[in-house]
Amino acid sequence: MDLLPILLGLGCAVGLILVADGLRRRPPGTPTTRTRQRWTSADRTRLLAAIVAGFAAAAATRWPVAALLTAAAVWALPRVLGPDREHTRAIARIEAIATWAELLRDTLSSAAGLEQAITATAPVTPQPIRPQVQALAGAVRGGARLPDALRAFAADLADPTADLVVRALTQAAGYHGGQLSQCLTSLAATARELAGIRMRVATKRAATRTAARVITGTSVAMVAGLILLNRGFLAPYRSVTGQLVLLVVGAVFAGGFWWLARASRVPQPPRVLSADQPGQVA
């Protein structure tokens, strides 16, 4: 078996995966945060599984395009068809921001000031935003100006709900702190209402995700059945023309799965604050 076409096909698949990953739109944040989100241990495991699956498909079919499509499918389909972890994290983050706003409100009555309230709430902040709040408290203890520390905090979270809290805290640190407790109460209620809305939207879009799983399972079962039970039906794909046709078919399926994934995703609302000045409306 000539391994050169297979290696070239796998190299092309890896290149396409990296290009698609680089073109994906991500919320703004610090470079360290974006890198950590992009290449987690799960991503590395998925990439290794994609390469192994590509070689397995090449050994079973001796088709470079089959190796390419299999590697791309193993890489992309778990994220497209699996549980929407990003939505789950977003809901948990919104709920955590609401709880932190309530903690700040309750702590302000006994704290000497806003900086002390932030420091006091850092150890008991809900886990989804605790590292960011602890970093904010550390910056305040280190002598950083509160508006600058809040600017870094907003950039790290990159969440529209957090922007609302940051703007209220920034105004309280300046000239408009008289109504902060009432404002934090209102923001906490708004955040919980937003989390409820996102949950209802996600529930309605779950049917699209289920349809994508059914279509994928049917397609994979049909291809596996043909390979195992009726290879003669796939004989025309052994030629160069057949490989090109198979590539086109794979591209059509990839476009369909991309559309299904996009239709089932809950869009992130626009941020309230600009990336450079969280005290200003974008």
From TrEMBL:
It comes from the Bacteria. Its main location: membrane. Gene3D superfamilies: Type II secretion system (T2SS), domain F (1.20.81.30). Residues 101-226 form the Type II secretion system protein GspF domain. GO terms for cellular component: plasma membrane. It is found in: Cell membrane. Pfam families: T2SSF. It is a multi-pass membrane protein. Keywords: Cell membrane, Membrane, Transmembrane, Transmembrane helix. InterPro entries: T2SS_GspF_dom (IPR018076), T2SS_GspF_sf (IPR042094). The chain crosses the membrane at residues 46-77, 210-229, 241-261. PANTHER family: INTEGRAL MEMBRANE PROTEIN-RELATED, POSSIBLE CONSERVED ALANINE RICH MEMBRANE PROTEIN. This is Flp pilus assembly protein TadB. It comes from Micromonospora halophytica.
